[in-house]
Amino acid sequence: MNRFLVGAAAAAGLGAVAVGSVSAQAADLGYGRRAPYTVNQPLNAYSWAGPYLGGTLGYEWGTVGNSLTKPSGLVGGLTAGYNWQNGSPWVFGIEGDINLSGANDTFAPWKFSNPWFGTLRGRAGYAFNNILFYGTGGLALGGLRAETFGVSESHTAVGWTLGVGTEFGLAQNWSAKIEYLYVDLDSNNFVITGAKNDYRSGLIRAGINFHF
Question: Helices (H), strands (E): how many in the chain?
Fold first, then answer.
C-alpha cells in the first residue's frame, strides 16, 4: 500500500512539472509573436500645413495697351495663405496678397503707372521635405493711372494671374520663397487718352513667411 502511495505522488509531481514546462514554452512563443512598435510618419519630416503670413519684395515690368509706355519699378507687399498637406508630398493651398508698386513710364506727354495690385490664387505643389515646388493662379485686381499735362485719371481693373515658385523651409515656423507671376488686367476707357488701355506685367519677387 505504501509503495502505491509513493508511486502516485511521484507521478503527480512529474505531471505538474510537465504542465509548468508547457505553459512556460507557450508564454515564450506568445511573447515572440508580438509586433514591434512602429512609427507611421517620419519624425523629422517638414510640415507645410496650416496658415501663414509674410511679406514680399521684387521688381515689376509691363506694357500698356494702346500706348508705347512700358512701366517698371520696385514692388512690395503683404501675403497671407493656408496650406493643406495630408501626410503626402502634395501640398495644396490658397494665397492672397496686396502690393504697392512703383512701376511707371513716360512716353511723349503720357505717363502710365500701376500704383497697386492684389491677387487671390490657388496653389498646388510637390514637396521634397523642406523644399516646395509649386504652380499658382487665380484672380487679379489692380489700378492703372494715366497722366498728361497735369491731369490724371485712374481706373481699377479686374484680371487674372499665373505663376510658378519655389519655397524653402528654413525652420518649422519660417520659410523663404522666390516666385514669378504674370498679371493681366482688363482694359478701361480713359477719357484723357480717348482709348481703351489695359495693363500686362510680369514680376519676380522674393518673400519670407511665418507659419503658425
Answer: 1, 8
| pTM of the predicted protein model | 0.79
How far, in Å, CA of 33 to CA of 109, rounded?
Answer: 87
> 116-172: per-residue pLDDT in tens?
999 999 999 999 999 999 999 999 999 999 999 999 999 999 999 999 999 999 988
| Residue 3 φ/ψ, nearest 5 degrees | -60, -40
Running DSSP on this structure, what letter comes out for residue 1?
A: -
CATH class of 51-211: mainly beta
Q: What ranges do the domains of the chain cover?
A: 51-211
Return d(Cα 167, Cα 131) in angstroms, integer.
Answer: 6
Question: In which element (H, E) is residue 181 found?
Answer: strand 174-190
Q: What pLDDT digit, counting tens, does each position of 177-186 carry?
A: 999 999 999 9
The DSSP code sequence of 26-93 is: HHHHHHHTPPPP--SS-TTPPP--EEEEEEEEEEEEEEETTS----EEEEEEEEEEEEE--SSSEEEE
Give the separation between CA 80 and CA 91, rounded to whole angstroms: 16
Cα 97 to Cα 141: distance, rounded to the nearest angstrom: 10
Q: Is 7 helix (H, G, I), strand (E, B) or coil?
A: helix
